[in-house]
Amino acid sequence: MRRDYRKVEENFYIKKWRGRVPIALVFPVTYELGMSNLGFLTLYERLNSYNEIVCERVFYDEGEIRSLEGNRLLKDFPIILFSVPFEGNYVEVLKILKKSGLSFNPKENSQILLGGGVALWSNPEPLAPFLDGFLLGEWEALEESLVPLFIDYAFNKETLLNKLLEFDFFYSPFYTEKRKVKIAKISLLSKPLKSNLLSEKAKFGKSYLIEVSKGCGRSCRFCLAGYIYRPPRSYPVEGLLEVLEEIPPYSKVGLIGLEFANKEEVKILGSKLLSKNCILTFSSLRIESLEKDFLELLKSTKTIALAPETASLKLKKIINKPILEEDLIKTLENLKTIGIKKVKLYFMIGLPFEEIEDIKETTGFIKKLLNLKLPFQLVFSFSFFVPKPHTPFQWVSLLDPKEMKRRKNFIQKELSEVKNLKFESLNFTLLQAILARGSSQLKHFLLSLAQENSLSRSLREIKDLNLYLSPPEERDFSFPWDFIETGVSKEFLWKEWERAKAQKTTPFCLPQKCNSCSACSLFSRLKIKGSSIF
Ligand code: SF4
Asked: Which of 127, 306, 334, 342 could cysteine-pair with 377, CB 3.0–4.6 Å?
């Protein structure tokens, strides 16, 4: 039975279809997660801001696939946009097509099926056989070009595709030879993105989400977002204050993208929100940023998440995240003063050159933290490292699954007394790893999974699994995603990989003062306020 989320939502759009272009905005994951995704919410609100467009949301659901607002079938929409946050959700994209009676061959569908989202910007190839094309880039940089085309040619698929092909941010494997495609990025930030659609059933509850910066200049070598959004950009204080005016008192507010925001400006924004009796939540917090003067902002926060990744100094240098053990302990001690209830700590297993000694350092560190007898709950989450395209670790082999299991068992044994210990599933890690560095040759693998076959059965559809799990460590090896330009040169990524092997760290980005990865040269008019990064 269809659930009526409108009873728990505020600020949704109900529009008549007559005389308008219907666009389905599909999030191939749950409603709860989609409603906490600022990119997805922004797209919904921006498209509906045009009188000529009616945009309705579709989520992955066990039941029939229908739009939330109009209860329409996906086939009823001439334009279907998939917003895909993770590689792990590609299978759901196929399941949605199947349940909706759409063909897996895009040429057989009269509707135009397009994909976007960070996972697809980095490597759309695994989904290339199933969609008409991919929109690579930040919506603010695409909107002006796309919306007039959607309005004029929604019901003429061929013309719309031909028009889209004029843009170098559009990739369509069916209609062109492979060519260079550029990820479109906005050069000058002004007013921050803010979501207005609120839902009690969203992961963070009824929260306004505000983006305080784009990208991150900390250069953690495993992090796709840290590379694909380069150069890092922060919003000016005037823009932040303008958004602040729109937030009603006593609201819940989630601040997204603190990594590169100017620290002083976030403090101003945060304290003004607190003076309006707002409750603040943070998508991510940097351990070294939680000095005493910032803790004031966390007064209304119950849970925070921190990601030390490892306690091994060797691995910290390799991944370029050299957070000192004493800094994390100092931060946790500081948190005692403000009534936090829970701190989630994220660690990774299988980082490049990890040995059992490195894991012992992490388990030893966790024991040390527990001995501090902190007055809040500590939750320890372990995920397995997945090498991502467009990062210096794109040449790295995934840890053998048998070895993953052995290391997981080791941690469980070492920390057998610890209650709040969580591990990512091995199968999900393997799936992510294959799809992250996948090619269009994975078509039958994905089709098999969409037919509910097990992962081990579906793996038989892959001719050379090693190509995805353990590519040759050669500087000029041709990856399926090499045709996508992020602004960061492959030469730079290779140099960073060499530095990682030599355990050399790389300093934070200094936009306008550096051109080492080439991304800053993307914007001749780039303006980044202040030099202090958050
Ligand atoms: S050019 Fe320098 S400052 Fe700009 S994104 Fe690259 S490393 Fe960072």
From this structure: 342
d(CA 333, CA 81): 46
Q: DSSP string spanning 11-80?
A: S------TTSEEEEEEESS-HHHHTT-HHHHHHHHHHHTSTTEEEEEEE--SS--B-TTT--BGGG-SEE
As a whole number of angstroms, the distance between CA 23 and CA 195 comes to 19
Q: How confident is the model at residue 289 (pLDDT cuts 50, 70, 90)?
A: low
Separation of CA 164 and ligand 1 centre (Å): 30
Q: What is the pTM of this model?
A: 0.93
Residue matched to tokens 């980082």? 351
Q: What would the two tokens of residue 489 be?
A: 């040169």
Span 385-395, pLDDT tens digits: 999 999 999 99
Average pLDDT over residues 343-359: 97
- Domains by residue range for the chain, with CATH: 5-179 (3.40.50), 198-442+484-528 (3.80.30.20)
pLDDT at 258 over 90: no
- pLDDT bucket at 281, cuts 50 / 70 / 90: confident
Distance spanning both ends of the chain, measured CA to CA: 47
Instruction: Give the whole-angstrom CA distance, residue 43 versus residue 190.
Output: 18
* Å from CA of 473 to ligand 1 middle: 25
Task: Tell me the one-letter amino acid at 245.
Answer: E
Q: How far is the CA of 519 from the centre of ligand 1 (A)?
A: 6
Residue 522, helix vs strand vs coil: helix
Task: Quick: pLDDT tens for 490-518.
Answer: 999 999 999 999 999 999 888 878 889 98
CA dist., res. 159 & res. 145, Å (int): 15
Report how far ligand 1's centroid is from the alpha carbon of 458 (Å): 41
CA distances from 423 to 30, 210, 227, 385 (A): 21, 30, 26, 12
Q: Which of 114, 298, 269, 112 has the alpha carbon at shortest distance from 192? A: 269
Lowest-confidence region among 56-65, 396-405, 439-448: 56-65
List, chain by chain if needed, residues with CB within 6 Å of any ligand 1 atom: 217, 230-231, 509-511, 514-517, 519-520
Residue 178 pLDDT level (bands cut at 50, 70, 90): low
Q: What is the pLDDT of residues 263-279, one digit of tens each?
A: 777 888 888 998 999 98
The whole-number pLDDT of residue 298 equals 82
Residues 6+ apart with CB under 8 A from 208: 194, 195, 196, 198, 247, 251, 252, 253, 254
Strand ranges inside 313-452, DSSP E: 342-349, 377-384, 421-423
User: Nearest-CA neighbor of 77 among 174, 167, 150?
Assistant: 150
Distance CA 83, CA 80 (A): 10
| Burial class for 322, CB neighbours closer than 10 Å (0-12, 13-18, 19+) | exposed
